[in-house]
Amino acid sequence: MFQTRLRGFHLCHSRSRRQRGSRCRALTLAMLLLAPPAFIATPGVIVPPAFAANLQPREGWSIQTSDKGYAALLRDLKSAVKTAGMGLVTEAGPTGAAAARGIILPGNRVLGVFRNDFAVAILALSTAAMIEAPVRIYVTEAADGRATLSYKTPTHVFAPYMAEAGPDLATLAAELDTIFAEIAGAALR
Questions:
Q1: Residues 102 and 177 in one domain
Q2: Structural domain that includes position 15
Q3: Contact 165, 126 (CB under 8 A)
Q4: Is the distance from CB of 70 to CB of 106 less than 8 angstroms?
Q5: Are residues 75 and 17 in the same domain?
Q6: Same domain (yes/no): 126, 184
Q7: Does residue 55 belong to any structural domain of this protein?
Q8: DSSP H helical segments within 41-131, as ranges?
Q9: What is the per-residue pLDDT across 137-185, written as a single tens digit (0 to 9) for each?
Q10: Quick one: pLDDT at residue 129?
Q11: How, if at all, do strands 9-10 and 5-6 pair?
Q12: CA dist., res. 61 & res. 155, Å (int)
């Protein structure tokens, strides 16, 4: 329970325990609702995990740290996607919207990458598997300014559909694995 004292006066003071609990809850809610966003997002007060730990190795992921800064890696990734003949289908991240609310976050962007011929071929094998397209590439900024490029390998992404779709899906996913590795390599150079 959040309780505050102001010059020795207990703001949640009341004669009965029931009234005190009710008054404290109302005061806490009012303070949170009326607090400006900057107060809520000020370091040391209430802060989202802006620089949470760097991504750790996990099954089915490719995680590669770069010596490049966030903006440079993002720019080079977009160029590598185009060079590889793939399409940038989606792009999203919380950084800009958070900044508009007065919250400063490190660079954080997800790019959805795919190509129509793969979409058509996979759709012919499994309608359900298409929920995974586009395959996402994640660019994050570390506290030291360096960026990390991460993605779930297409083989891992499409694994749940292999039994339904058969070996042709495994072949397509392996081809996508090669393309995504080339894109990552080019972006990181």
A1: yes
A2: 5-34
A3: yes
A4: yes
A5: no
A6: yes
A7: no
A8: 70-83, 95-100, 116-125
A9: 999 999 888 999 999 999 999 999 999 999 999 999 999 999 999 999 9
A10: 98
A11: antiparallel
A12: 10
